[in-house]
Automatic annotation (TrEMBL):
Residues 25-279 form the EAL domain. The chain holds residues 593 to 878 of 878 of the full protein. Coiled coil: none annotated. It comes from the Bacteria. This is EAL domain-containing protein.
């Protein structure tokens, strides 16, 4: 039982003071196991905005845990434990299902261009024999067209297992899109692009921060964007907080951006409000 075996090592992943001892960790883990089924998980959405026309082309599903005593917990406070305890399987299934049913209700970015929903997938989920089946079931059950779903994986996840790559390829033949998250921070970025039918890469926020101050970061961002564009892969910049960052990314040719400059991750109802408020001025522009 991995989480118990390295329980002491896990504690440091949590905010200081959140957990004191191993017994607390074990009960936290048990609570987490039940949270997925017990209605304590929420899925929030962060809009993704086109840098060509500023339309909202999609949104990323980001899980939160409404903890009975500790309030709203962010993924960094429980995903690592969920991954080592296996609870991520239930959490991931919940997020995927909710994301598909929510996304069905979203308006189109513009006529004929429906919004995509991005869902983060952990290595353990991809290792499961049932993964392909459960994704296809979520699509069928919700009625979400496969091409509107983007599965976000990190480079390491994809490179770890051939079976994972085969599962992703099967899903891609059904129309599902695959994106590489935190691109540029893992290993062998370039070979990932060769081994998989990827349609999106997400530039890690650290490059967005670095590119304005550090010429090396800027060159790396330019290279990733140019290479992706030649390969027919869309680029999305993460963690865009300022207008000068947006301007630089647009100049380089990044396709889309996501970050606090536009909107934080918000509950489904707030996303709908944000989209409605945003659509009004954009429609006037047309
Ligand atoms: P990620 O997929 O790279 O998601 C982007 C993270 O950046 C999110 O943090 C988002 O709230 C945050 N962010 C967005 N815009 C800005 C900005 O302008 N500035 C800054 N400083 N941060 C920004 P969040 O929601 O805390 O999620 C953290 C990570 O947890 C995600 O990173 C993802 O790897 C993981 N995660 C979230 N939801 C799920 C899930 O349902 N399943 C799995 N397996 N992992 C998840
Ligand atoms: Mg992500
Ligand atoms: Mg990311
Ligand atoms: Mg990230």
């Amino acid at each position: 039982y991995a989480a118990k075996a390295n329980g002491k090592g896990q504690v440091q992943l949590f905010k200081p003071g959140l957990l004191q001892g191993e017994s607390t960790l074990v009960s936290f883990e048990r609570l987490l196991g039940r949270a997925a089924g017990g209605g304590q998980l929420e899925v929030h959405y962060q809009p993704i905005v086109s840098l060509t026309n500023l339309h909202c082309t999609g949104a990323e599903a980001l899980v939160r845990w409404r903890h009975p005593e500790r309030g709203l917990l962010l993924p960094e406070e429980f995903i690592p434990l969920a991954e080592s305890s296996g609870a991520i399987l239930a959490i991931g299934a919940f997020v995927l299902r909710r994301a598909c049913t929510d996304a069905v209700t979203w308006p189109a970015a513009r006529p004929g261009v429906p919004m995509t929903v991005h869902v983060n997938i952990s290595a353990l989920e991809l290792e499961s024999d049932h993964f392909v089946e459960s994704v296809l079931w979520c699509l069928a059950d919700s009625g979400l067209p496969a091409k509107r779903l983007v599965l976000e994986l990190t480079e390491t996840v994809v490179l770890e297992s051939l079976a994972a790559v085969e599962r992703l390829k099967t899903l891609v033949t059904h129309g599902v899109q695959v994106g590489i998250d935190d691109f540029g921070t893992g290993y062998s970025s370039l070979s990932t692009l060769r081994s998989l039918p990827i349609s999106v890469v997400k530039l890690d926020a650290s490059f967005v921060t670095g590119a304005l101050s550090n010429p090396v970061d800027r060159t790396v961002v330019e290279a990733i964007v140019q290479m992706s564009s030649k390969l027919g892969i869309a680029t999305i910049a993460e963690g865009v907080e300022r207008l000068d960052q947006q301007e630089m990314l647009a100049l380089i040719g990044t396709d889309a951006a996501q970050g606090h400059l536009y909107c934080r991750a918000v509950p489904q109802a707030e996303l709908a409000d944000w989209l409605a408020r945003r659509a009004a001025p954009l429609l006037r522009e047309l």
